[in-house]
Design brief:
Blueprint (H helix, E strand, L loop, with lengths): L2 H11 L4 E5 L11 H7 L2 E5 L3 H10 L6 E4 L2 E2 L4 E7 L2 H5 L11 E3 L12 H7 L1 E8 L1 H7 L7 E4 L5 H5 L11 E5 L5 H13 L2 E6 L2 E6 L3 H4 L16 E7 L15 H11 L6 E5 L1 H11 L4 E5 L4 H4 L4 H8 L2 H4 L9 H4 L3 H5 L2 H11 L6 E5 L9 H5 L1 H7 L6 E7 L5 E2 L2 E2 H7 L7 E11 H20 L6 H11 L4 E5 L8 H10 L4
Parallel strand pairs: 1-2, 1-8, 2-3, 4-7, 8-9, 12-13, 12-15, 13-14, 16-20
Antiparallel strand pairs: 5-6, 5-7, 9-11, 10-11, 15-19, 16-19, 17-18
Helix pairs in contact: 17-21, 19-23, 21-22
């Protein structure tokens, strides 16, 4: 059973699907359903009992119509219930690890908050709070829910108390995901017995149980044939990129950065015989068709205005960008692209989101996805990228998520982000290297998880008034989730620069 493929097929066949998500937290962190909600524009009912997380949840969906929210816990009675949590303020100040952000549980806890490993942290910083709670029936009645296409429950050990109430004769979700790891043995057995009673097929992957109706399993798990351009070449890597014209708002006098020069590099990039998914506004799509000819390509229509409509942090970025105290940090910020152009940071900060959307659609059935800016061709000769071995050998770096880093120099700010704050959030004394935003990517199974962590760090830093470029947030990811990220530092003898990295890939024996 492949949950990604099932959700993709549901989205393709049922664009009006309705999601019930219980334990929605902030709507993104540790949430691999959110990308599908955004990609397919699903609506739903989102339930979260912790007030601060609920505020972030509603704010994150504020631009999406048709969303319903409930600030309550769900249990087998209606009234109030005690919960334990680590206050968000403790996480935001860096006193405890970011993994505690949003962590909570019905008292007494069964999740990590009840473990011996976390006992000291809970005793020192844990906070008991009382929140409203209601039954599943009361929840569905209050919000007039008639149909549930997807049910997601993440209740940190309280999951069976919630799921056992759902009438699977009346509501028959096409997709069920339930956190399984914190259930006691008897509850796990009862959960599986109920699914089997109502003819659901199920599997456990990692910490979660997934289930679909038995009669629909083969259909939902099947691949749909997608024929776009010529058949894909032998590469198992898909390049994701985009093209937008900022020239009317361009304030720099550097002619090498004007759109006409960007377009020259983009035309070069399009010569690669590698599957590509390209985001572009309609005025430039005819150029892509011309440049790519019959090479395997998917075009995604994405106008500049979409970065205002669909980027949750557009207003926060503008507030910081226009704040004199931010531009005063570095004399060059006012004339930099991310300082002078309102669209620039919303676009660059959306790269991982676009990469994740691409792996959800997965039109070429690739295992690996990389974002590649065409501006990389200012320093990397095209022949290094066009070498047949380059992308074949690249897969060895992409088993998790991969970043290249460059020396950060010694300036007190990095693209407007105070160096000392970036180091503090990375739990380091200094930041000698910063991640590159020109090239990054990874295995499709890892990208969704990275996407959630990225959203969390972006939200957390912007709330604190800290902004640089996407490279600063990538640096936070690389330092705080080393189990998900592989990093190669450029600037040493083995790989002096990004051109050498791609040259070495092309010259190496098959990896």
């Amino acid at each position: 059973m492949n949950p990604d493929l099932i959700l993709k097929n549901i989205g393709t066949r049922n664009p009006g699907a309705f999601v019930l998500q219980i334990g929605a937290m902030d709507g993104v962190s540790f949430d691999d359903i959110r990308p599908y909600i955004e990609h397919f524009k699903w609506t739903g009912l989102f339930v979260e009992p912790i007030p601060e997380m609920f505020a972030r949840l509603t704010s994150g969906y504020s631009r999406r119509p048709g969303m319903i929210f409930e600030n309550s816990a769900i249990s087998d009675f209606t009234g109030t219930i005690d919960m334990i949590r680590i206050p968000p303020s403790v996480v935001d100040r860096g006193i405890v690890h970011a993994c505690y952000d949003g962590m909570s549980a019905v008292w007494p806890p069964r999740n990590g908050l009840g473990s011996e490993a976390d006992r000291e942290t809970v005793e020192k910083y844990g906070e008991k709070i009382t929140v409203p709670c209601m039954t599943m029936d009361d929840l569905l009645l209050k919000h007039s829910v008639e149909t549930i296409d997807m049910l997601v429950i993440d209740a940190e050990g309280h999951d069976w108390h919630i799921f056992k109430q759902l009438d699977l004769l009346r509501f028959r979700p096409t997709f069920i995901k339930i956190e399984y790891i914190n259930l006691i043995r008897e509850e796990a057995d009862e959960l599986i017995a109920k699914l089997e009673q109502f003819t659901y097929r199920h599997t456990v992957i990692g910490q979660d149980l997934y289930a679909v109706p038995a009669g629909m399993e083969a259909d939902l798990c099947g691949h749909s044939d997608i024929q776009i351009g010529s058949p894909p070449c032998s590469s198992n890597v898909t390049i994701v990129t985009g093209i937008w014209d900022f020239e009317q708002e361009e304030s720099t006098a550097d002619s090498s950065r004007h759109f006409s020069h960007y377009l020259d590099h983009f035309e070069e990039l399009c010569r690669l015989n590698i599957p590509m998914l390209i985001y572009a506004a309609k005025p430039h799509q005819h150029l892509i068709k011309l440049f790519r000819e019959n090479r395997p390509t998917v075009l995604q229509n994405k106008h500049l205005s979409s970065f205002r409509e669909n980027f949750d942090f557009f207003d926060a970025v503008q507030d910081i960008r226009k704040n004199p105290s931010w531009s005063a940090r570095d004399a060059g910020l006012n004339v930099s692209k991310h300082g002078a152009i309102e669209w620039y940071n919303p676009m660059t900060m959306s790269k991982i989101f676009m990469l994740n959307d691409a792996r959800i659609g997965n039109p070429f059935n690739s295992d690996y996805y990389v974002w590649l800016d065409c501006t990389i061709l200012r320093t990397v000769p095209l022949e290094h990228l066009a070498n047949d071995k380059t992308f074949h050998n690249m897969a060895s770096y992409l088993q998790t998520f991969f970043f290249l880093t460059v020396p950060s120099g010694d300036a007190p700010t990095l693209h407007g982000f105070p160096r000392k704050d970036l180091a503090r959030l990375c739990n380091r004394n200094d930041i000698p290297h910063i991640c590159s935003g020109q090239f990054f990517g990874g295995h499709r199974d890892c990208i969704g998880e990275i996407n959630g962590h990225y959203y969390s760090w972006l939200s957390r830093t912007l709330r604190a008034g800290l902004m640089g470029t996407e490279a600063c947030v990538f640096t936070l990811l690389a330092n705080n989730t080393p189990e998900l990220c592989r990093v190669l530092h450029l600037g040493d003898e083995s790989c002096v620069d990004i051109a050498a990295f791609f040259r070495n890939l092309g010259q190496a024996a098959n990896m």
